[in-house]
């Protein structure tokens, strides 16, 4: 059995151009865009986390962004999804805990309300996944398995996962706990480096 292992210290920030959008590391200048995202009830409910939700509303953007500025050096690949033409912040894709379990990481994502409806989360997740599966000698993270979870009631996230090639592996009972204490069964999805690479088209266009 062969393995490719890199320590978290070797994770280097990268930019991934992908046509109409770009994945790049977050910068302090993203705070106004993050502030808009942090007013969306679904982003707050499913992705913000109790530490951010516990802050006053006007401090949530900084509270969410600060760990993202340091994330790469902590072993998390944290991408801002931005518009190629305008540079506007459209969303976030994170692959956290890279190699904490050897050759694995855990994905999460959000898209700002104004940018929804373009299959952007699936396309951005796919772009980040392709990079993550690229061997380290080729500039990627050399991973083999990426997983994600979403509450069953979050149907849009389930669609994003399957479109991005993350197969449904099962249901984790009472896995996700909202800050209110409400528990949700969650789907576990995963994509392997050896899985078929999806071809994802934005609505109204054809996959390349
Ligand atoms: C989930 C999310 C990232 C999707 O954003 P997006 O990429 O703009 O998604 P789209 O609007 O293009 O929709 C993608 C697919 O999901 C479907 N979908 C979206 N919302 C849905 C809903 N509430 N119920 C059922 N299907 C839904 C769309 O019809 C589309 O299907 P298609 O690919 O077959 O056409 C975005 O809604 C979001 O940021 N939500 C809040 C944060 C979140 O839930 N993150 C995931 C945590 S696990």
UniProtKB/TrEMBL annotation:
GO terms for molecular function: protein N-terminal-serine acetyltransferase activity; protein-N-terminal-alanine acetyltransferase activity. The keyword Transcription does not apply. Residues 41-195 form the N-acetyltransferase domain. Pfam families: Acetyltransf_3 (PF13302). GO terms for cellular component: cytoplasm. Keywords: Transferase. This is GCN5-related N-acetyltransferase.
């Amino acid at each position: 059995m062969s393995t490719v292992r890199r320590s978290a210290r070797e994770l280097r920030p990268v930019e991934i151009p992908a046509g109409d959008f770009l994945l790049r590391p977050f910068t302090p200048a993203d705070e106004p865009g993050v502030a808009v995202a942090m007013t969306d009830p679904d982003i707050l409910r499913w992705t913000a986390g109790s530490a951010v939700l516990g802050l006053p509303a006007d401090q949530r953007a900084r509270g969410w962004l600060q760990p993202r500025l340091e994330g790469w050096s902590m072993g998390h690949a944290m991408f801002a999804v931005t518009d190629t033409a305008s540079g506007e912040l459209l969303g976030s894709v994170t692959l956290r805990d890279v190699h904490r379990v050897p050759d694995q990481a855990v994905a999460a994502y959000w898209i700002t309300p104004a940018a929804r409806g373009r299959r952007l989360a699936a396309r951005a997740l796919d772009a980040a996944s392709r990079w993550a599966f690229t061997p380290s000698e080729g500039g990627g993270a050399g991973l083999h398995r990426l997983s994600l979870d979403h509450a069953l009631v979050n149907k849009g996230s389930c669609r994003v996962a399957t479109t991005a090639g993350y197969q449904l592996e099962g249901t984790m009972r009472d896995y996700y706990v909202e800050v209110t204490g409400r528990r949700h069964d969650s789907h576990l999805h995963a994509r392997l480096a050896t899985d078929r690479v999806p071809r994802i088209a934005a609505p109204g266009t054809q996959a390349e």
